[in-house]
Amino acid sequence: MPSLQVRELPAQIYHKLQSKAQKEHRSFSQQAIVALAKGLDIEDNPKNRRAALLKNIVDDPVFLNNQDITSPVDLIRKDRQR
Question: CA separation (Å) from 17 to 6, 39, 61?
Answer without folding.
Answer: 13, 13, 44
